[in-house]
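Example 5.3 — histidine kinase
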Amino acid sequence: MTPAAVWDTDSFTSYRLWRGFMAARVGIGLVLLVLLASLMMLGLAPAVDRWQVGLCGAYLAAALTARFFTRPAMPGDAFDPQWVSTIGIDLVAFSTLHFLQAAGLNYSPLFALPVLTASVLGSGLLALGTAAAVTLLLLIEAWLQALQVPQDYAARFVQAGLTGGGYFAVALLANQLAARLAREEQAARRSLSAARTQAYVNELVIETLSEGVLVVGSDYSIHAANPAARKLLAWHARETPASLALASRPGWQPLVELAHRTFIDQAPQGTEAALELAPEEHLHVRVRTRLTPPHDLQSDALCVMFLEDLRETEARTRTEKLAAMGRMSAAVAHEIRNPLAAIAQANALLSEELTEPTQVQLSALVRKNTQRLAQIVEEILNLARVQQQASPTWVDVGQEVLGACGDWSQHQQAGERLLVLPPPDNVSVVFESEHLRRVLINLLDNAWRYATTAPAAIVVATEREDDLAWLRVWSDGRALDQGVQRHLFEPFFSSESRSSGLGLYICRELCQRHGASIAYRRAPAPDGSGRDGNEFTVRVRSRAQPVPGPAPFDTIGA
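Solution (predicted structure tokens):
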């Protein structure tokens, strides 16, 4: 493999070598010009003519032109015109001075420059050709000298042959070293590129990790922190990691102690800790540490800390358990549905023949509980139905709200306990009609369960703001506990034993399927009465005028 086949025009090493050889040519031309001109002017070398000084000046001009007006070319052909012209100029100038013996000087060492230039920057064939040309010139010069002095022709030929052989050896050695340097440079560049790519990948992985990562030095200074760690530690300040020490925050003291144990024991550590981020605000985290080996004798080891929010871990575990429970419950509910319907039908037939009050009362109790069980089974089976991808359409929210509230009020015999505020006209939302109705019915059932019997105990309001519509279901029940609020939309969670705990979960799932969001808050009544109560709000995309047909689907942030 030759250097021309390995190097490319962007190789810094090849360019640096080319520049060095071009500078050497300029330097040699300048020295020859000054030397011969000085000898001629001082009369120390009468054999020096003006044309010899002019030859040195022309060579210097050619060297300067090649240095400043050309760029290195890595030819695929062994005899590229650029290299041949450069090396050819050297051979012509040096051989002319050598044959003429200008100023009585020996110019044969100058032939090393074109040989090295061809060997290092050219191909192996060009290097050998240049060495052969130099050897031939030396042999011709020895033959001419032998014609003048026949007595020492043997010594002159031997000297020319040895010098030419040396140039051949220099050409081969320099060419092999240059090829090896080129291969090592390419390997180094590939390794550097791979290292940079790996560093970018590592940085991307660390930045996108949901687990917090802190890199801490032995002086407890923070060398790096990914976004997850900043979010966990409520690190919203503008300090860079290098300017913030782990010990500068009193609430982070458990992390300092864990890092100290890691450095002292020189072993990984792990524990659960409570960090005080603000007064009366604690973060419970699971912390694992790893110690990195030092890069060299001058560098210190670093402690890498992995932070995991225990709340998220518990939530994932709870979600997985609930998902497994939901799948099992759906399977059981499907098997219970048919026997339960048979029990209800048999009880209905039996109740037609009962006359004693006690038996009628027992039959009514059976009917009531079978209806309750049937409702629970239906809600459990609805979990599987809401998992299917929805096909959102534009529906008139006012008509849907009035129709659903009217049917629900008639079924529950709510009377004055339900107040439906007039919805805005001609406002469409992105929702399936049946799914929107189910969300509203579930919210009304939940409000009915906890509201008082006072007039307007439940208020339904619909509002529109810009491109969003707000559906509010308010009730005058007592405020929910903080512990209950955290689990409101989880499946099978209820604050009372007679509820399946699936109504709000189904509402959230249906809202998410249609790009909407649902939330709870303690708020005043929408009718302006000033009463405080519990309010569930559904936020969904809207449009001022109804648009028939399917609607584009996107998600509204919670």
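Remark. Residues 1-10, 546-558 have pLDDT under 50 and may be disordered.
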